[in-house]
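A.,

Following up on our hallway conversation. C-alpha cells first:
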C-alpha cells in the first residue's frame, strides 16, 4: 500500500469550513482508507491506500462534501513525493536562516497544487517576487521564502495568478507530516 498525504484547502480557517478531525478520520475510514491520521486542525491527513491519486482526490473531495457540506480542494502527495519536496528545497541554509531571523512567523512555505501551472501563469506569479519574497516553482510545488511575513505579502496574495487552486503549508508542518510517514513506514517494516 502507498502512504499518501492529503492536504485540504481552507479547512478550519477563520471560523469557516469547520471540520472536527476525529470526525474527518472516521469519514475517510469509511472510504476504505487505512491508518488514517490527521495533524493539527487545518486538514493534513496521512493514510494508506492502493488507489490512484486522481481517484483518491475525487473520493475524498466528494466524501467531505457529502459528510460535512464543505467543498475543499484536495491536494495529494505520496510520502516519497513529500520527501522530495523537502530534500529539493531551492533555498540555501543561509537564506533560510536569514529569513528566519527577520520573518514574523514562519519564513519557509510550500504552496502545493493539484497540477503544474502553465509557463505563462508561472511567469505572471513570479513577477511579484522581490528581494524580501522569493519563490521557485518546481512542477506542482511552489516554494516561498519570506523575510518579513507571508501575511500581506505580494507573493502570498498573488498565488491566484497561477490559476490553479493551491494549499499552502509551512515548513514545520511538512517536516512533521514527513516524520509521521516515516513512522508508518517503520511500523510496516517491523
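Then the amino acids I'd put at each of the 190 positions:
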Amino acid at each position: 500500500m502507498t502512504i499518501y498525504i492529503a492536504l485540504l484547502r481552507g479547512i478550519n480557517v477563520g471560523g469557516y469550513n469547520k471540520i472536527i478531525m476525529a470526525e474527518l478520520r472516521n469519514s475517510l475510514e469509511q472510504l476504505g482508507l487505512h491508518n488514517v491520521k490527521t495533524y493539527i486542525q487545518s486538514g493534513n491527513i496521512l493514510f494508506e491506500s492502493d488507489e490512484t491519486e486522481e481517484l483518491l482526490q475525487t473520493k475524498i473531495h466528494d466524501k467531505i462534501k457529502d459528510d460535512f457540506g464543505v467543498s475543499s480542494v484536495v491536494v495529494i502527495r505520496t510520502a516519497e513525493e513529500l520527501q522530495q519536496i523537502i530534500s529539493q528545497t531551492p533555498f540555501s541554509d543561509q537564506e533560510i536562516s536569514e529569513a528566519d531571523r527577520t520573518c514574523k512567523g514562519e519564513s519557509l512555505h510550500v504552496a502545493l497544487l493539484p497540477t503544474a501551472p502553465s509557463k505563462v501563469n508561472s511567469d505572471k506569479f513570479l513577477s511579484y517576487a522581490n528581494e524580501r519574497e522569493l519563490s521557485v516553482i518546481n512542477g506542482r510545488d511552489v516554494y516561498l521564502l519570506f523575510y518579513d511575513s507571508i501575511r500581506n505579502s505580494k507573493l502570498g496574495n498573488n498565488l491566484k495568478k497561477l490559476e490553479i487552486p493551491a494549499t499552502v503549508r509551512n515548513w514545520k508542518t511538512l517536516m512533521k507530516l514527513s516524520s509521521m510517514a516515516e513512522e508508518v513506514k517503520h511500523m510496516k517494516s517491523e
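The CA atoms of residues 19 and 57 lie 18 Å apart. Curious whether your intuition agrees with the design.

B.
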